[in-house]
Write a structure and sequence with these properties.
With 256 residues, this protein is mostly helical. It contains eleven helices and no strands. Helix 1 (5-32) packs antiparallel against helix 2 and helix 6 runs antiparallel to helix 7 (131-164). It has helices at residues 5-32, 37-46, 51-56, 63-83, 87-103, 108-125, 131-164, 170-176, 185-189, 192-204, 219-244.
């Protein structure tokens, strides 16, 4: 066939994986807010409009696959916590956790969250059952998710350690990209510059490592991000106020 046919097919596959990730975003929104379908629609529309998402969706790379598997793991986690565990839901949760961990190292926190949810679900939704039975179910379900994740992805991280000296191959990756100076993890996570840089990458990081959202070009994305954070804070305050306010009794009509 044509020498570029395989490359074009791989790019099309990446686009389809990105579409699956957008569907996972919609599913997550519907699970968390089932009475607000407009919110799910807004999330579905907004997510694929990020410039970096559009660009990376056309590349033959695992960035989009990592986004899709991590979002699927979050949706499965929310499903188990909100609606309770079942055989089907736990199977989906274990598969999503394994896929997130196997795709790339950044999926490990989402796999860990899924394992935690598998253990918490029987405790949250098992009221009325003996405490020992609930504890056994929690341990069994967390063990199932852990076993699925380790069975699917454990070999990969052990291979990284054997080849590169650490489970994530981080040192070798930093060396290849010219980032030899490593800072302590807590210093990085506590740095405002780190988080603003991650946010700016959503609006202008290209596949070759170019960062377009710098200087004045970073301002629109930062303003929109600040508006989103403000909206989330306002929603949290309103939800807390509604939870602390007793419901107003409805007036009863005259008896006949």
């Amino acid at each position: 066939g044509h020498p570029m046919a395989g490359f074009a097919a791989a790019r099309l596959l990446t686009v389809l994986v990105a579409a699956a990730g957008v569907a996972a975003v919609a599913a997550l929104a519907l699970i968390l807010c089932p009475d607000r379908p407009r919110l799910a629609l807004a999330a579905t529309v907004a997510a694929p409009l990020l410039p970096s998402f559009v660009h990376l969706s056309g590349l033959v790379h695992n960035d989009v696959l990592g986004f899709t598997t991590a979002t699927a793991a979050m949706a499965a986690t929310a499903l188990v916590l909100v609606r309770g565990p079942s055989a089907g839901r736990l199977a989906v949760l274990a598969a999503a956790a394994a896929a997130a961990a196997l795709t790339r190292a950044s999926g490990l926190p989402f796999a860990a969250l899924a394992v935690l949810a598998a253990g918490l679900a029987p405790l949250l939704h098992g009221r009325g059952r003996p405490a020992l039975a609930r504890a056994r179910a929690a341990a069994a379900q967390a063990g199932l998710a852990t076993g699925a994740t380790l069975g699917a992805a454990g070999w990969f991280y052990l291979r990284n350690r054997a080849l590169y000296g650490d489970l994530g191959g981080t040192a070798e990756n930093l060396r290849l990209f010219g980032f030899d100076q490593r800072r302590p993890l807590l210093d990085v996570l506590g740095s405002g510059g780190f988080w603003s840089g991650v946010h700016d990458q959503l609006w202008g990081r290209m596949g070759g490592g170019q960062f377009l959202a710098t200087g004045p070009l970073a301002l629109p994305g930062r303003l929109l991000g600040a508006a989103v954070v403000a909206g989330l804070l306002l929603a949290g305050v309103r939800a807390a106020h509604a939870a602390s306010t007793p419901p107003t009794p409805r007036p009863m009509g005259p008896r006949t």
